[in-house]
Every structure is written in structure tokens, then in C-alpha cells.
# Entry
Amino acid sequence: MKAYAKLADAVAVADGAEMESEGVGVSTAQRSVSRSILVVEDDLDIAYLVDLHLRDLGCDVDLAHDGLSAVKQAFSKSYDLIILDLMLPRRDGLRVCQQLRAKSNYTPVLMLTAKSSELDRVVGFEVGADDYVTKPFSIRELQARVKALFRLVESLRTPVVSVRPKMFQAGDIVLDVEKRKVALQGQPIDLTAKEFDLLQQFIQHPGRVFTRTELLNSVWGYGHDGYEHTVNSHINRLRAKIETNHTRPEYVLTVWGVGYKFYENGKGDA
# Structure
């Protein structure tokens, strides 16, 4: 154990100096967030060394040295990450990973393996591993992968609130997405379904130039050659309903040789 302590201290000093020189050190904020990690590794020197450097990241670390013990500990306590060796006594890492994935709560798994063949990596991913590190590995790489998995899990746990506008206004036009109604100068306009979809596509992207094919794809769901006249005819009918003078449009403008765009400030010159 004394030999290990000297080895660990030497590696810690070397890695720490290298990380500091390259600006890869752990911030105070990162240290303040305590994560719980289970390290499953039968090689005691590697296990203790990984333990040491994970604690440098501010993590709480538990160790297991065989597959059965790992399963027992993983099911008795909730962990933020499990670092799992592939070759283990009493139960190999692949079987352990399969059992972990049977749990209701998801825990990311980082696989440690001395094998570097593609097949081993593929099988590891198929049974549920999230990432892997091949021995011999760099402590810095291990720490980087651990932090990357923490970021991934955090992003998945953070609810993404997508707020899509329900009302659009451009000049004298007001479009209500939910009610599928359009008003011009406060008066309702009767649009067909495709005319409404076309206007919504334009009003949501003021100033963007759309080709006829792009409009076919986004509004009609297809972009086959020879159907451009469909866009032209609907543009003409839409202009007749929203433009003061459809021969000199102020909203839906023609971009010659390209397609159409909706004027950015509501109205403009054709």
C-alpha cells in the first residue's frame, strides 16, 4: 500500500501540474457539486488510483471489486455514475451492465476495458454502456469523460420548455396560430387551409427568401419538379386577399429568379 501511495502521489502531482499548465483544472464550482460514483474494478491499484482522481473532481466514491458486489451496491444505493470494468470475477461487466439497465432509474455507465477491439465496444454499447475508456488510459481522459457524462445527464434531466408564439402580427395582418384565423385591419379574412399555412410560413420567417421547392416541402409536404405552379397560384390567391393592390404587393414579395419572401417590417415594395 505504501508503494501504491507513492505511485498515486506521483501521478497526481504530474497530472495536476499538466492540467494546471493547460488550464484544465477543476473549478471551485465543480468541486462544490458532489457526485456519487461507484467504481467497479478488480485491479486494486487501478481502483484506488481512479478513486483518488475522482475525489479530485469533488466526487464521493464507493468501490467494488467483483461483479456480484457491484450489482448489490448499485441496487442498494443511488449513484450518479458507475464506472465498470469489463473483465470482473464472479460476474463479468457485460452481465452487470445488463442488470443495471433493468433498474427503473437510469444511471450512466462508463466501461473500463483492457480490450480494444471494435466488437467489445459494440457489445458494451448494445448492453447499455454510455461510454468506454480503454486501458491503459489517461487520468485526464477519464476525468473528461466523467464530466462529459455528468453534463449529458444534467441536460437530459433539465426540462426543455419550448415556447412557440401563438400570435403573429405584421403590419395590418394578425395571424392566430391556434384558432387558425387571420385578420386584416381588424377584419377577418377567409383563407383556405393551404393559404393559411403559406401565410404562416411567411410571417414566421420575415425577410427569408423561399424557393418554390422549399415552400412545396414545408407547406404541401412534397417538392417534385413540375409542381411549382401550385405555389404560384396559391401566392396569387393569397395576395388577392391580403394585399391592397395584388399587382403591387406589399407583404408577399417576389424575388426574381429565386422565389418569394415576406417583407421584414410588414410592408414593402415589390
In short: The mean pLDDT is 80. The first helix runs from residue 2 to 21. Residues 167-262 form a domain with the Arc Repressor Mutant, subunit A fold (CATH 1.10.10.10). The two ends are 82 Å apart (CA to CA).
